[in-house]
Design brief:
This protein is an alpha/beta fold. Helices cover 41% and strands 24% of the residues. Helix 2 links the parallel strand 4 and strand 5. Helix 1 packs across helix 7, helix 5 crosses helix 6 and helix 6 packs across helix 8.
Length: 188
């Protein structure tokens, strides 16, 4: 059983990322369960999606200490969900920082040196996904950059990932999303 949490802020494309991942895993013959928890997704609040796959999956929920991967669209979200990462698990994260409402209103301060703190507690693969998405042609493609990054940890052919992109993304956005995926996958 492999447990993946996709975490971010509403409107960043985490639902497309989980749909793409679910499609890929089903095509690879796995039993897959996906559970989307929207939270305040329409207002920029925290969003989490659970993706579990294996020979037989009975529940879509991932408990604390069970996630093999946390794929994060934003650093603070990676830190928020860190207790769910299992020992030996990995965080794949965008280095972007998005101020939550308490920071915007002045009631809190965005934590300093967050990436260093995360690296001190777990294995972290951090990339400026926003920069790569913009290089691909749209800041909205951060989700596909992250999927490209995540793909490096699975022994699935790149062609399988690209087929799932084609199946899940409208035709007019496919080339952009394929480029974003390739930039995330190829970044060292």
């Amino acid at each position: 059983m492999v447990n993946i949490m996709i975490v971010g802020v509403g409107g960043q494309g985490s639902l497309l990322a989980s749909k793409l991942l679910g499609h890929l895993l089903l095509r690879r013959g796995y039993d897959v369960k996906v559970s989307e928890v929207h939270g305040m997704s329409q207002r920029g609040g925290s969003v989490v999606t659970y993706v579990r796959f294996g020979e037989k999956v009975y529940s879509p929920i991932i408990d604390a200490g069970e996630a093999d991967f946390i794929v994060s669209f934003e650093l603070l979200e990676a830190a928020r969900w860190l207790p769910y990462l299992r020992n030996g698990g990995r965080i794949v994260t965008n280095t972007q920082q998005i101020d939550p409402m308490p920071v915007i209103t002045g009631a809190a301060v965005y934590p300093e040196n967050l990436l260093e703190k995360l690296k001190a507690q777990s294995a972290v693969d951090a990339v400026d996904c926003l920069k790569l998405a913009e290089e691909a042609g749209s800041a909205r493609a951060v989700n596909l950059v992250l999927m490209g990054r995540l793909s490096r940890y699975f022994d699935f052919p790149e062609s399988d990932w690209l087929e799932s992109i084609d199946a899940c993304v409208p035709e007019k956005f496919r080339e952009l999303n394929r480029k974003a995926f390739a930039l995330g996958r190829g970044q060292d």
